Amino acid sequence: MHTRTCITCKQTLPSNLFKYRATREEAKRKGLSGNTAAWVESNRCKACRPKRKPPSKLTRNELANRVTAGDVSPIEAERILNERELKRRAKISEYMKVRHAMLKHMSLRPTQLKLFLLEQHIKKEQAQQLKQEQRDAKHSAKLSTPPRKRGRPPKQLIPTTPLTTGQKSVQGETHER
Ligand SMILES: [Zn+2]
To answer: 0.70 exceeded by the pTM?
Structure first.
C-alpha cells in the first residue's frame, strides 16, 4: 500500500487519504485541462485539509462563480437560492406572526379600555395634586429662606409618569425665572 506523510500532522497515512476531487477551477490552477473535476493529490491528509464550503453555504456571488466554472450546475444553484429565499420569507412571516400576537395581546377590549383610561385619569390627577403640594411647599420654603442655590426640583420624590412631571417641571421653571 502506498503511503504518504502529511506536512501538517506529520503522520504517514495511506495515500488515498491525500486524494481529493478538485473543482474545475482548482484543476486549472494545477495545470490540468479543467474539463472535468479531476482527482488531485494534496500535501495534507484528509483531516488536515481545509474543509471546502458546501454549495449551500456559498454566497450568491460565489455560487455564480462556481456555476460559470462548471463546478455547480445551474439547477443546483437555483435550488439553493430558492431554498434560501423560502427560508427568508418563513423568517419574516414568523416575525409578523409574533408581532401580530403581541399587538393583539397589548390591545384592550372597549370595557377594559374604559377602565384603563379611568385609571390613567385618576393617576394623572393624583400626580398633579402631589405636584401642586410640592410646589406650594417649595414656594413657602423659598419665602422663608433666601434663594441661594438654584437646583432642580427633587424628581425622585414624584412617583408619577415621567411625561407629565417633565412637562410640569419645565413650566415650573419658567414661572420661577
Ligand atoms: Zn494530516
So the answer is: no
